């Protein structure tokens, strides 16, 4: 912090003015305000928070104090939204900002631009460096995470045996699943020996296989209070655990490196207990749901089986057979009708042709010709009566005296050629 040396302009004006003139309260307050703001442009103050009062506007009003003094402070909304922690009364913090005077109350106060826990900057830097180094070793890889057993029969808890965390865990387990066994492995959760004891108890739980799930945690506290759960020995013990581990350190806004190494992070010890214990009511509802789904599935299968059986009843089989045969039978009937019609037409056509041919043949037969008045003349061969010869078609084939056989439509006659006329 740099202090401006020498009198300020406001101070010089006041000194050079008429010393007999009384200053108003507002003038004196303005003089003090300008003197403070010019002399103390930016300060860094360490103190304990008291009377932390967040307003509905988003601004936060509080007091910084130590054993000998108090300082009113305000942090405006756009700055308070950047806080990475929840300020509480009694917390030791460092505030950076400007000193001013609140004229309406005649008191000086600090406008805080930045607020952090005392010593938090160095601790956070150390934790970030450790986090990067352990992450590079693969201790935080998601591939290492294992699912929790849904129905563990025994839960091991590494925590303080007298702290609020174990009471919360036991209360939740007793309410949700009273039949679960709980093994408490006592360990200090803050102080110099805490990390060693926590890591040792994690190893004991694994060596003796004391639980199906292991909860490692404590209640809330300052960043310094939670440091044992970010110790490298604790992180490595959690990463090496063969038992699935739930890290349950502090409150929702708190964190530790054990959260990254564990198979699962719980925001609070109570939440960790809820994760490992299925509520009896929940189990009952799930069983009822499974029963209902099973009954529905069985009824559905029975109904499908009944429908399949019904399909093989005589009437159903006959109906299905008729549905199958009907198109075939119809096509057969249509084909038979078409064939009969075609055969009838073919027979009729050929009958007609036969009749026409018969008529033509009858018209051209010798009998028909004879019936129209013609006769067939043959010359008898030799002297033997009755010996027929070829049909005479030309009178040149005859000689006077030839014996002729004349066939009429009805009957025959014998004749002798008297004269041949050509």
Helix and strand arrangement:
Elements: H1 9-16, H2 25-39, E1 43-54, E2 60-65, E3 70-75, H3 77-80, E4 92-102, E5 107-117, H4 120-136, E6 154-159, H5 164-176, E7 181-186, H6 194-207, E8 213-218, H7 232-240, E9 245-249, H8 257-261, E10 264-265, H9 269-276, H10 280-310, H11 314-364, H12 366-371, E11 376-379, E12 403-407, E13 412-416
Helix pairs in contact: 5-9, 6-7
List the secondary-structure elements in sequence, H or E.
Answer: HHEEEHEEHEHEHEHEHEHHHHEEE
Oligomer: single chain
User: If helices are DSSP runs of H or I spanning 4 or more residues, what is the number of helices?
Assistant: 12
Radius of gyration: 63 Å
Strand content: 15-25%
Query: Order of strands side by side in the largest beta sheet?
Result: 1-2-3-5-4
